[in-house]
Known about the structure:
This protein is mainly α. The protein has 17 helices and no strands. 69% of the residues lie in helices and 0% in strands. It is elongated.
Amino acid sequence: xxxxxxxxxxxxxxxxxxxxxxxxxxxxxxxxxxxxxxxxxxxxxxxxxxxxxxxxxxxxxxxxxxxxxxxxxxxxxxxxxxxxxxxxxxxxxxxxxxxxxxxxxxxxxxxxxxxxxxxxxxxxxxxxxxxxxxxxxxxxxxxxxxxxxxxxxxxxxxxxxxxxxxxxxxxxxxxxxxxxxxxxxxxxxxxxxxxxxxxxxxxxxxxxxxxxxxxxxxxxxxxxxxxxxxxxxxxxxxxxxxxxxxxxxxxxxxxxxxxxxxxxxxxxxxxxxxxxxxxxxxxxxxxxxxxxxxxxxxxxxxxxxxxxxxxxxxxxxxxxxxxxxxxxxxxxxxxxxxxxxxxxxxxxxxxxxxxxxxxxxxxx
Length: 364
């Protein structure tokens, strides 16, 4: 299961020590840095920040555990060192990686203790290997972890689809909220495990594993720094006031009065909860209203913004003002031009550039 030919490879040991130090630095950064360095305007989820710091700490300790093995000369002692290290990884690194995946999804709180329940069979198999001082059960251990990885992958596909629907139902701006990239965590873990287990690439596999670790450090730091805190603990803890029984027939006119006429839709990061409060209803009935109209909250707000974009573009052309699509998109309430461009194409069936050119020729 483990590469045993690194004694005397000074370059590898230096690289190994550097990766261990990077894990420690990343841990300290997340624990003691009060604000984001990469994205200072974004408030990241505090739980994700702390759990990721714990994960980096576990990775640091894992590296430190294996370092003394370079001084071991007995193959039995080396095997025991690796078996114990594998057991410790199953108790810390693996479940913490699962916890990070769960914490990235902010649509609801998932029981994090399940991450440790998932690895119990793997821990038991490693304990039996240690007790017997052999590797007879390693094939079963490898097979279980592979099955766990596949099961986790399938679960994340389902969970991310649910999460995407939740975002579209509750938020107008999806920038810094989507987490489909969380598959990177799972992919790196599975690739690293596969290389480590089956020794793909021969002697080079030990370097590949450490490179994967560096990729994981960079990705997790970026993800923690750029993921917005959606504060579900605050918004979802607020009780739904069922006494506000606004009929569906009344919600349409209320949206016209309090959202369209006031141009509330131009507000960045306008959430379903905020709109429901402004309209005078609750998010439950407002969400039901959008469902009855065969749309989502995200599509509703973005359609209003695109209509506003079209209006101010026509005004600009009529006034012979020089404007750019990026400028008007920001004025229309969009956080990024890419989001605007995608939404515009979904609504009109053509790109912004082609539409603007056609409108300019028609109005001129």
